[in-house]
Fold this protein.
Amino acid sequence: MMDFAYWLPIVWAVILVAAISIYVVLDGFDLGIGMLFAFERHPDRRDVMVNTIAPVWDGNETWMVLGGAVLYGVFPGAYSTLLPAFYLPIVLMLLALIFRGVAFEFRVMTRGTGREGMWNAGFMAGSGIAAFCQGAILGGVVQGIRVVDGAFAGGPLDFLTPFSVLCGLAVMCGYALLGATWLIWRTTGVLEASCRRWAARLAVGLFLGIVAVSLWTPLLHAPYLRRWTDWPNIVFVAPVPVLVVVLGGLFVMGLRRGHSKGPFLCALGWFFLCLSGLGITVWPYAVPPGLTLWDVSSPPSSQFFQLVGTAILLPIILTYTIYSYHVFRGKVTETDGYH
Amino acid sequence: MQYAHDPALLLARFQFAFTVGVHIIFPAFSIGLAAYLAVLEGLWLRTGRPVFLDLYRYWIRVFSIVFGMGVVSGLVMSYEFGTNWSIFSKKAGPITGVLLSYEVMTAFFLEAGFLGVMLFGMNKVGRKLHFAATCCVSLGTLISMTWILSSNSWMQTPRGYSIDPATGRFMPADWLAIIFNPSFPFRLVHMGLAAFLSVAFIVGATGAWHMLRARKEGKAASEPVRVMFSMAMWMAALVAPLQILAGDAHGLNTLKHQPVKIAAMEGDWVSEDHAPELLFGIPNMKTEHTDYALRLPLAGSLILTHSLNGRVPGMKDFPRDQRPPSPVIFFSFRIMVALGMLMMLVGLWSLWLRRNHTLFTNPVFHRVALCMAPAGFLALLCGWVTTEVGRQPWTVYGLLRTSDSVSPVALSSMAFSMTAFVVVYVLVFGSGLGILVRLLARAPHEGEHDTSPVHASDILGARMHPGVIDPSSGKGA
């Protein structure tokens, strides 16, 4: 039983990080496309942008519901301390996601009534605010929260620091890059050309953001610094920054040579490396700086029951999610019958 | 009952009630409408009659709006347990969090995964596969309802747990006992029928409206309008009486497991045999008396125990700090029952008219059916208020108090979020309602299935968005 209680939280941490990663990249390009409305004003091209994600955004957002539910069922100690700690940015993010979500339907349904502009603005602002809040919350978790007796004991604006703001901006930049590279893959013509230009600038922004966050994070807590500098850890963690630079080179090549999927895959790689880096930094804490995975876990009977279902259901979910993407594969254009 | 003097607690409760009250409308709408769409598409595939495809295309636009609003308002709920009720989620999360996770994995992904194919994919996957997608979405809504009602019922009638003495956490001991707790089957049936009935009355009112309009213009109602009205009235006639039986059974179950809830619903203070039923009254929690009571002798015992001398509980049997607020649920319960009776009468009336072949020609009936549009949803909300407020002052019935469940969130944050939720919900869901009304005000036309040469290969998804398939959409009515 002791081993069970030790290993189950680790297995669940891996599943949760995987679910969050899937959410981040899938809804990342959705939210990025919303933000790119700021650069693309042409109504037809905006429709193409939305049409590349209209059939799949629902499923993408469901990964976030899964993240919340898994945290609630498997790590209730984390759910019940993190959510009150980030009360304001979470509420703001949820409200922003409401605007973003309904705008898919409403901007089309209100076409010709003069109110479409409002929902386009809601789509854009909702995406941007949600992205910023997600980054700020992530930054806030890394910098840690004040916990007394297993409950959040800080103030409502504790999360708001230069570090969390930097993380918020970096995530906005990263999502916009995911959106732009997704559109390079899925569109043609003027829109694709614009996206290549935007992607180049956004990649520079994200790269600077990654460097800044990477240099700042180890200074937040002493264990973070040791994780990255102590021997022999350094042998295992050094590939992460090296790969970030290598992917940067591949990205520039892909963009210049007109690759269709390459830039998107590089952006995905960057997100994967950043999330891995964060995981390495924070491990084994669920709520830094005080609560470990085991401190916040639900009893093994809960974690095991949920694991059985997950082991069966997650592969099925992934299968039909991939099927759904497969049905709507290929380039989306203004003239291919969608409009 | 402690009337939560702490303003932060009061705001947390009000915010949760408001957000869940708005949310519950959309999944209930989706449950009913997805099933209706699956039936329509199935009938179309089987009979080949174009009217079913016309109706499918008409209602899928509504579905895409309603489902979207359900997704975004539901996302709020999955985080609000933690933001507003962190102590509850910490203690009960090992049980309710796991049930919610199963809901996400078995239902939400299924719905979201096949929704894209359902809305946009008919020209891409073929008819049978598209029908399978519609069925998957409908199945997803039903599975979702099952899990969330299991979780909700567990909070009302907790079973299969032990309490960890060190932390006060609920530890799962028997998952089958947790999932199939005593009130779950009754709640599931009652809620499922409520969802079907609510949608039946929306569909019926839409049909009635278009028949009244056609009559005003001196035309006969089109076939799709008549078919949708007829289907809706069949549903009302069959389901409304069933719902009353289900509600009665649920009431007996509640009497067994939560007698004080029944006493508060009935405004009864002293337990008695040969109890009367109060048709009206104003329960007063302070004086422990129901003022202005209008009594129907013996009916209370008859309804609650199915015998004239059955013993009916009173609130005085229970300590003051364990009584739910009777003035709220006394009325919400009565409004629900009254609406249920009205819906049954409409259903029976439709049978009578159908027998006389005047179902499509009686304008008085059409006006009544139009007015009954919100009846199902209002009854559903009243029922929800009755069962949830009736659970007070507990979150986990008899075990964890609401006042001990709330998050340590500053009053200022709570006030800010409450304001923001109200403003955003009124704006967003108000606009959504406006869009729905505009969609429904446009008559479904016959021959919507005749695809123009541009969309020759396509049935539904010629254009990416279902709202713009139809050349006349956007003009409104």
User: Anything to note?
Assistant: The mean pLDDT of chain A is 90. Chain A touches chain B through 76 residues (CB under 8 Å). DSSP finds 14 helices and four strands in chain A.
